[in-house]
Amino acid sequence: MKRFSGLPMLGAASLLATLFASTAFADVTVHVLRPEVPNTEKAYHQKMVADFEKSHPGVDIAFEYIANEAYKQKLTTLLQSDQKPDLIFSWAGGVLTQQAKAGVLQDISASVTSDWSASIANAGLSAFTVDGKVYGMPVNASDVVFWTNLDLAKKAGVDPESIKTWDDFLTAVKKAQAAGITPIMVGGKDKWPLHFYYGYLWVREAGKDGMAAAMGGEGDGFASASFVKAGEDFKKLVDLQPFEPGFMDTTFEQATGQFGDGKALFHLMGDWEYGTEKQNSVSGKGIPDDKLGTISFPAVAGGAGEATDTFGGINGYAVIAGAPPEAVEFLKYMTDAENQKLAGAQGLFIPIAKGVEGSIANPFFRKMSEALAVSKFHQIFLDQALGSDVGATVTDVAADLAQGVVTPEAAAKTVQDAWSMR
């Protein structure tokens, strides 16, 4: 049985105690590692585990969770050790490709039966396929939107539904400031929340073709005019000083809790915000549903991207090389239509299995699902899509732009230089 013994890179002896408390006597243990989720989603996992173990005697499934940023930072080291889990949460993209080509993932193509592949949306299956080989499966899609405190919007004289363009959004920021309201909460310390702004503006300015051209090495790549313009758009926002004081010392977890406490008008975040802003708030309840809203990222005048283009993730689990067959079986079980419907009904995430859209009870998720359905271009998070090294450069550059310590031109050139040297 594969062990996690001695996990210094995870920095928690208690993690081991929890991990093995119920697994020591199993014939086969499948270790699943993923970033933290709200307790409601953990309960969903626990039910799946109990049901699966009941129908698979001798198999034990052990979920373990670590903070989002720590997960990203430590996963590479973990996968190079002899303490590897069997299934890891993945945002797909270039990072998954790197892992596959490095040999740390297991090709499960032979196990992906026609009925299994047919049950998954094509875009989802493609996201976990590298050079024709399948290394994992998607579980959910995610869409990044501006979560909005409707009470604060009313106080500021802002009509969220009227925000259609970037200039409209900048006007809303100014109105919030005039009303003594912090316009935007952001977890700048983790950097990736800031890259949501920069990345979405890339999508709006460059569009699908521009993104493909840059990744294909055409012209000036990520240093071309569209990407410089995206930086200039971001700078217009940054120059307004829209974020909470000390935003570069605020983590994602803190930011989402403070948004849930009603301390800012907007928070640009994915669908997971719904659960985390409630759980991380002081009250544990967050903003009531009837006081919470979402708006799509605004269009940019003159940009090549379409207003319906989306930015987010296609998220799931990759199978680690050497994982037992039971790991693949459990992955198949996680993508089962009934489990996907249950997640949709409980408002945990946006399920990706075909034919389960009607199960989405959460009105915010249903709205996002509808947006994803009409989107002709869905850009995966840049810190995943571009690979770990270039992705880290993008998040660093986004943080530098947010602090006003780099110009849009220099930012674009830095990304292009990193892409050229990858």
Automatic annotation (TrEMBL):
<dbReference type="InterPro" id="IPR050490">
    <property type="entry name" value="Bact_solute-bd_prot1"/>
</dbReference>
<keyword id="KW-0574">Periplasm</keyword>
<dbReference type="InterPro" id="IPR006059">
    <property type="entry name" value="SBP"/>
</dbReference>
<keyword id="KW-0732">Signal</keyword>
<protein>
    <submittedName>
        <fullName>Raffinose/stachyose/melibiose transport system substrate-binding protein</fullName>
    </submittedName>
</protein>
<dbReference type="GO" id="GO:0042597">
    <property type="term" value="C:periplasmic space"/>
</dbReference>
<feature type="signal peptide">
    <location>
        <begin position="1"/>
        <end position="26"/>
    </location>
</feature>
<dbReference type="Pfam" id="PF01547">
    <property type="entry name" value="SBP_bac_1"/>
</dbReference>
<comment type="similarity">
    <text>Belongs to the bacterial solute-binding protein 1 family.</text>
</comment>
